[in-house]
Design a protein that fits this description.
Blueprint (H helix, E strand, L loop, with lengths): L3 H13 L3 H13 L1 H23 L2 H6 L2 H30 L11 H13 L2 H10 L9 H31 L3 H25 L4
Length: about 200
């Protein structure tokens, strides 16, 4: 049995909370367009499917209980978020010194990989699925957990699309090159802050 009435609002609330992946989706939409941003969400979903599969197979609880593994994942996530943040800030500064609009570097593979790595290296995502999904099923069976996981992906898709549309609106507003520089600098600062928050998180 699945408590859909309780799960759906909880899933929407969790997905709405701004995080690194949602921020990436917004930035990708502002800089490259909706198509690239949605491809990035596809990379995010591959990572989430892996994490949900681990939870459904019962490995999520074991991994969550491994302090050493969570610590490794934590610092991988910190390093990657820090790299994303610094590179975004440096890109914005470089382009600020240019007199003409910078050509957009549309590397679809990089967009997808960035979303995947951010999602898979975030230990909070694993803990979220390991703690959230079992609360809304009385059986705890792999099938029920997988069903809840699939429903969460549906919610994540809708919320992710909303972030993408906001990013696209930002990208087409005002002076495009100036807007993109602001998005890169702002998202870079946010990535650095998120890296710091993850680094000092004593629960991991």
């Amino acid at each position: 049995m699945v408590d859909w009435a309780g799960f759906v609002p909880a899933a929407v609330l969790v997905s709405l909370i701004p995080g690194a992946n949602q921020l990436l989706g917004l930035r990708n939409a502002a800089r490259y367009g909706v198509g690239y941003a949605m491809a990035g969400i596809g990379g995010r979903f591959v990572a989430f499917v892996v994490l949900i599969g681990l939870v459904a197979a019962g490995l999520g609880t074991l991994l969550a209980a491994s302090a050493e593994l969570l610590t490794i994942l934590k610092w991988i996530g910190v390093a990657y978020l820090l790299w994303l943040g610094v590179s975004s800030i440096l890109k914005a500064r470089r382009e600020m010194s240019q007199t003409q609009d910078p050509p957009k570097s549309k590397n679809l593979r990089a967009v997808v990989i960035n979303e995947f790595v951010v999602a898979i290296s975030n230990p909070k995502a694993l803990l979220l699925f390991a703690a959230l999904l079992p609360q809304f099923t009385t059986t705890g069976s792999p099938a029920a957990l997988a069903e809840l996981g699939a429903a969460y992906l549906g919610v994540e898709l809708l919320v992710g699309l909303a972030y993408v549309l906001v990013g696209r609106a930002i990208g087409v507003a005002g002076v495009k090159a100036r807007t993109q520089r602001k998005v890169d600098a702002g998202s870079g600062i946010c990535f650095v802050i998120l890296a710091g928050v993850l680094a000092v998180d004593s629960s991991l």
